[in-house]
Structures are given as structure tokens and as C-alpha cells.
Specification:
two-stranded parallel sheet, seven-stranded parallel β-sheet, 14 helices, 365 residues, 14% strand, 13 strands, alpha/beta, globular, Rossmann fold, single chain
């Protein structure tokens, strides 16, 4: 499904060797699908998928790229894999990404998100000719003051729950490597961080996430349990974030000095919808499950929004779909998949094509 007309950032990555940690996960699978579609040479390093079904297996990407099953906490295995592949670009997606799980498993959360990131950076700085490292963190790295204003990249970092704290700590590790270390050919380590919002899209079957929980309730005829129905989040389609990661990698290749920093990647219009509002949109698009409310849920931030002015103005990052289109396309993905009308590969690559066509049309306009 190779495209003859590529966007500028795609052209920069075509033919490049891209090492993706967490490639078997939800976002990793979307990222690998897009990278392969534009002609990148992709190698993944990750644990086996944790869910069944999993997007990685449904897309059957293992036949199109190198896939290494391993743990980023295993420093030796990670260094051997990266050294053997010798990538141009590293896209670090591997993480323990679930807030409620971080309360149950705090050690594993900190170990994966902090020490795992440290291992990725250590391995990266010894790769000859490395051109870019994009480390994905989260919008939750900020010291959340529950205020209505969006957070900017220079706001203080913090984290009260183990997940947020681990990602904030990872940002500090990355910042140290940006300033303290150089590549094997004596250049500043070209590493940027991407702070994204609540990622949604087809093919996510994780626990304790609104969209997968909604899908399970609809397809299984069960109740949907809500924790914080009035909490606000910057909901975004996974393709918006993958586009941002790819644009950062391409910019690092050309302009590492001005790009090796942190970047917010929030909704284009700055809106942060409540959990209840997203649920209502999903119900209108597909079906309405019975609702239950969780007593004494684990503490999570209620108000959260990002200021992405820097990414829009300096990087030129403009997602193709707004939040309503994002919710509609997400519901359509699951509806088509679970009714058997189309397989995951057809739906996923179809949405990538639609997304790209909108970006190309916008660029020409």
C-alpha cells in the first residue's frame, strides 16, 4: 500500500531504519503500520501483546518487519538488539501506561517507565550515526493544580499517582541526557519528548480505559463502570500523536539543536471533553450500554488540558480530525471490526489513507 506522494516528514523517514520500542502495543501497532506504509525499515522491540485480541496480531505486521520480543528493563538485550540493527531513528513508546495499574504495581511502573527509558537512552547514545530519538511521555507529567488553563511546556513537572510520577521522572532523565551526553560520533544526543493527551482509536483493548471498556460493554452486553464521569481530558486520535512523533523525528534529523526539547501534542482546538461527553458521543454513534459508577476510585486528575501552540506554530503539527470526528472514526473502527464487516488491516490502513489525504489536501490548499 506504498504511496507515491508523500508528506514532507514522511519523505524524510522513507528508507530510514526506525527502531520502535513497544511496537506490539496499541500505539506502537498504528505507528509501525504508518511507517511501513511509507517505506521505512522498521524493527520493533517489545513484550508480547498483553491483550487478546491485540491490534499487533490483527494487523499481521510481523511478516513485514523485524520483531524482537524483549523487555526494555533488560538492558543487555536491548543494547544488543539496537546495536545489531543500528537505527537512524528511535521511537520509544514502551511503557506501563495505565494509572490504576500503577497503584497496584508501583515498582514495575517506575522500573519500566524510568529505568526502561534510561536503558533506551543508554543504548541510543552508542549507536553510530543515530539521527533522532523521540521519547513519548504523557500530558500527565505536569504538576496538576486542577486549574482550567492549559499547561505549557515550561510549567513545573510533578505527579501524585505512580504513573504520572514515573513519567515525570522519566522526563528528568531525558532532560539530563539532552544536556549531559553526546552520541558516539560526538554530537549532542538528538532526543525530544512528546507529551500527548488521552489517545483513542480502533484496536485498543486495554483494561481501565474508557473506549475499550465501552466496546466490551456493548459487544458483551455488560454494564460500563465509570470512575470520574466529569473529569476532563484532551482526547485525541492515535494518528494525531503518531503524526506528531514522526514530525518530531523528521525535524530532529534536520534541526536537532532547536528540536531536542519537550513538545505538547494536545487537541488542535484546545478542547478537553468530559468522560461523560465522550460517552454520549459514542452512544449516539453506536449503542448505549448500562452504566455503573465505581465507589472510591483510585485518585486521578480531574482537570487536564494542554497548550500545543509550539507544536502547531513551530513544528507545523495539525491533526486531520477534530474531537467529534475522532470519536466517530473510533466507534466506526470497532463497529466494523466486531460486526465482521471488515478486518482490522482494511479498517486501519483505510483510516491512515483518509488521514493522509486530508493532510495532503490541506498542504496543497
Amino acid at each position: 500500500m506504498r504511496h507515491t506522494e508523500l508528506l514532507a516528514f514522511e519523505e524524510k523517514l522513507r528508507g530510514r531504519k526506525v527502531f520502535v520500542t513497544g511496537h506490539t502495543g496499541f500505539t506502537g501497532s498504528w505507528a509501525c503500520a504508518w511507517l511501513l506504509d511509507i517505506g521505512a525499515d522498521v524493527c520493533g522491540f517489545s513484550l508480547a501483546p498483553e491483550t487478546s485480541p491485540s491490534l499487533w496480531h490483527e494487523l499481521r505486521l510481523d511478516g513485514r518487519m523485524r520483531s524482537i520480543l524483549g523487555d526494555i528493563c533488560d538492558r543487555q538485550a536491548l543494547e544488543q538488539a539496537m546495536s545489531a540493527y543500528c537505527p537512524d531513528v528511535v521511537l520509544h513508546l514502551a511503557a506501563q501506561p495505565l494509572v490504576r495499574k500503577s497503584y497496584r504495581e508501583p515498582f514495575d511502573t517506575f522500573n519500566t517507565n524510568v529505568m526502561g527509558t534510561l536503558n533506551v537512552l543508554e543504548a541510543s547514545r552508542h549507536v553510530p550515526g543515530l539521527r533522532a530519538v523521540v521519547c513519548v511521555t504523557t500530558d500527565k507529567v505536569y504538576e496538576n493544580r486542577e486549574w482550567p488553563w492549559p499547561y505549557r511546556e515550561n510549567d513545573p513537572l510533578g505527579g501524585k499517582d505512580p504513573y504520572s510520577a514515573s513519567k515525570s521522572a522519566a522526563e528528568m532523565v531525558i532532560q539530563s541526557y539532552q544536556y549531559a551526553f553526546r552520541t558516539s560520533d560526538d554530537r549532542p544526543l538528538p532526543v525530544a519528548t512528546a507529551r500527548g493527551g488521552n489517545i483513542i482509536g480502533g484496536g485498543d483493548w486495554s483494561e481501565d480505559r474508557l473506549i475499550p471498556d465501552f466496546v466490551r460493554a456493548v459487544t458483551q452486553g455488560s454494564s460500563l463502570t465509570l470512575r470520574y464521569p466529569d473529569a476532563t481530558r484532551p482526547w485525541q486520535h492515535v494518528l494525531a500523536l503518531v503524526q506528531g512523533y514522526m514530525m518530531l523525528a523528521a525535524r530532529l534529523i534536520d534541526s536537532p539543536d532547536t528540536t531536542a526539547r519537550s513538545w505538547n501534542l494536545g487537541p488542535a482546538d484546545g478542547r478537553a471533553l468530559t468522560v461523560r461527553a465522550v460517552l454520549e458521543s459514542l452512544a449516539e454513534t453506536w449503542s448505549r450500554p448500562d452504566l455503573e459508577y465505581l465507589d472510591n476510585p483510585a485518585k486521578e486528575a480531574r482537570l487536564l488540558a494542554l497548550d500545543s501552540t509550539l507544536a502547531r506554530d513551530d513544528l507545523g503539527w495539525h491533526p486531520a480530525w477534530d474531537v467529534e470526528q475522532t470519536i466517530e472514526r473510533t466507534a466506526a473502527w470497532y463497529r466494523e471490526f466486531h460486526t465482521g464487516k471488515q478486518d482490522a488491516t482494511t479498517i486501519t490502513f483505510g483510516q491512515i489513507v483518509e488521514w493522509r489525504q486530508l493532510l495532503l489536501k490541506r498542504n496543497k490548499g
